[in-house]
Amino acid sequence: MIRVRGLKKHLAGKWVLNGLDIDIMDREIFTLLGGSGEGKSVFLKNLTGLMKPDGGTINIDGTEITELSAKKLHKIQTQIGMMFQGGALFDSMTVGDNVAFGMRRLTDYSREKISRMVKKYLEMVGLDGTEDKLPESLSIGMRRRVALARAIATRPRYILYDEPTTGLDPITTDVVCDLFLELQKELDVTSVIVTHDLKTAYKVSSRIGLLYEGKIVAAYDTESFRKSDNPYVKQFIRGNRNGPMKAKNGQESVL
Ligand SMILES: Nc1ncnc2c1ncn2[C@@H]1O[C@H](COP(=O)(O)OP(=O)(O)OP(=O)(O)O)[C@@H](O)[C@H]1O
Ligand SMILES: [Mg+2]
Fold first, then answer.
1. Which among 7, 32, 41 is the best mutation to test ligand 1's pocket, defined by most ligand atoms within 8 Å of the CB?
2. Any atom of ligand 1 within 6 Å of the Cβ of 25
3. pTM of the predicted structure, to 2 decimals
4. Tens digits of per-residue pLDDT, 76-88?
């Protein structure tokens, strides 16, 4: 499991994460909702060790990762698959090389094994035979599925998804959601999804949390979240501008 306590991150002159506590249990699909600019991507980057926190602890399967040497962190990172926001792929690499990337970097699999695995994972996401294509020749929905295949290819215990369905049409969103549920069953993993899409959250999550001002202000199982009287949750679900939460534009640091 992942246990996060008092997590803090200071960026662009403010505390983006400000004492965040959450436990992510084995085999659950935990979805973190939150407005734009609230720090959802920053949270995921801290979990993977891509960003170092300025306070607090992150314990993954009994190992405190915030103090680890690069080498030991690398070992933990083999347990974590990440699908980045926008499903970013390497545009100059073929689909096959994109999916193989993590396996080449993090495992000692032979060339033959890697190419077998690439084929298998592309099949799992419904993209068999696309190994030699370049990402630019695929639709956004297909690219998102390649990113998914890349995230699962190293057989991680944890998969972190940053906005996996944002920008997809409702039908493709549904296809990607079904894929999550299938992968969850087949791969026996723990997933953390970050999104502001309620529909995706309701369809796939076992538990939903809400991030506001650097803290988790609510975390309930999906049914309880939907029915919650928590004023933050009610405001987020209804998309009401009046309530305890104020909108951030997420761009303050750039402007
Ligand atoms: N590398 C960075 N350097 C400086 N500031 C950053 C950096 N990354 C994020 N921030 C700032 O931290 C805040 C939270 O950003 P983050 O990307 O985590 O938001 P988010 O919740 O993922 O938003 P969105 O829903 O738009 O993706 C923003 O104000 C952003 O400008
Ligand atoms: Mg983000």
1. 41
2. no
3. 0.90
4. 888 898 888 776 8
